[in-house]
Amino acid sequence: MQWRLLLFFIFLALSNWATAQRNCGSMDYLEQQIRQNPSRELQLQQLERLTDQFDPVLQKSLSGGVLTIPVIVHVVYGNNTENISDAQVNSQIQVLNDDFRRLNADRANTPSDFRGVAADTEIEFCLTQVIRKATTRSSFGTNDAVKSSGSGGSDAVTPTKAMNMWVCEIGGGILGYAQFPGGSPATDGVVVDYRYFGTTGTATAPFDLGRTATHEVGHWLNLRHIWGDGGCSVDDFVTDTPTAGGPNYTGGACTYPGPNSCTPRGKNGGTDLPDMFQNYMDYSDDQCMNLFTIGQKDRMWAAVSAARPELISATCDGTSPPSPQEICDNGIDDDGDGLTDCADPDCSYASNCAPPAGDCVAPNGLTGQIGKGGRQLTMSWNTADGALSYFVEVLQNGATFASGTVSGTSASVTISKNASYTWRVRSNCANGATSDFAQTSVRTARLASASAQALGVYPNPTNLSEVTVTWNLESTAPALANPVIRESQEDFVNVEVRDFTGRVLQQKKVEDNGQTTLDVTNLRAGVYLLHVRTQDGYGVNTKFVRL
């Protein structure tokens, strides 16, 4: 009997140890796909070649500087516990946006050794639909059953124009898995166990901060594990991540420096650095993760350009309610989690979220204007009731660039060209009270966004030998969420036709009179980028299709 009890407790301890470590199924899933379809490996090799050719400067103008990916969440549940709330779904979308834009609160924990390469990936996510599907299955594996209604799951929806995410119970201790670019659209997307999705409800420590989905979405955008799934001689195809000999299962205090599993570093003769266990693509506990790198950002954008190009023009015209932005005294909390929301997927509600009297209210009406020369950013906002002064902070790539307190409703700061900034302002009220931040973004040294007003191609699509190109490079300073301002008119522009790797296929220099023609006889059928660029480097794109 004593031996049986001992064996039982040993088994229990091993079970608890196993579930306390991150276990991602993406690489096993990829190997399974390659075994079933050997051409899958050739697809990945071609994607690597396109990634090597990708122009990271061009990516900043493909989608106005920021790519927004629509997200469709499938909640596949066998019981009420697995049927997670809308609030939990929204909490995960918020984590993805914070992590990918480097707005995560724990970015301050990034060691100084790595702050120089930590990146705002300029990728965002918007929830467009939540699909709930009851199932008789007790759990799912990594065989894609959850992605098919015929096997108790839920079918993918518009997979080329949105990211599908399935939330369910996954067996075998797997936290989640994702399909790398280039696989079947019917199975494309990310799967996460309901116990490790979001930050509320069923989210379970030490994976309760939403980083499992951040990790798996990284795979979906072609990131490998930071140790390359091998030893020190195997690479993750990113130059600014230190070579690592294996996964780091860090926990507790996340103390840095941690392991230095490969000495010397071995990448381009770089400095010998400890393992970057803070990277979202390691196996650390959620509380230890806090960054993507610039190299990982470029790799993700290359994957979108080469393998997921329809995302560039995808829209977020969904019907699901957005994540609650404010918690109010007179809101509706119908599932007891402290958020104003609607738990039942079939119910509807009207927002009634007015700030209670006496609160310190955040300012609204934020606008940004860049003066002539593109170096002076002037920020302004409306007066907020009860505000005695305002604290203004300007972030560049997620890090504080400038900050200060002002008494009026405007502030100015000198900024750099060719950079993206987020600026935010909060009210300082009586008795030390402060409001939430209100924020917006501004990007310098690019033309107005690639809209029909800025750049047009006619006819588009075309099967003709010639197209007409029109543009409008007027200097503007619009009060938009992401204003993009050019400082002056130029005499000449370069008109270029590029493929999605950034390779220039055709170009001509013309007077900046707003119109020209292009001979497209030699272009094969396909999708191309038309790029109009001024002499000082300002540019704007649009896409056109050759039939």
UniProtKB/TrEMBL annotation:
Keywords: Disulfide bond, Hydrolase, Metal-binding, Metalloprotease, Protease, Signal, Zinc. SUPFAM superfamilies: Metalloproteases ('zincins'), catalytic domain (SSF55486). One of its GO terms (biological process) is proteolysis. Pfam families: Peptidase_M43, Por_Secre_tail. Residues 1-20 form the signal peptide. InterPro entries: Ig-like_fold, MetalloPept_cat_dom_sf, Peptidase_M43, Secre_tail. CDD domains: ZnMc_pappalysin_like. This is Putative secreted protein (Por secretion system target). It comes from Neolewinella xylanilytica.
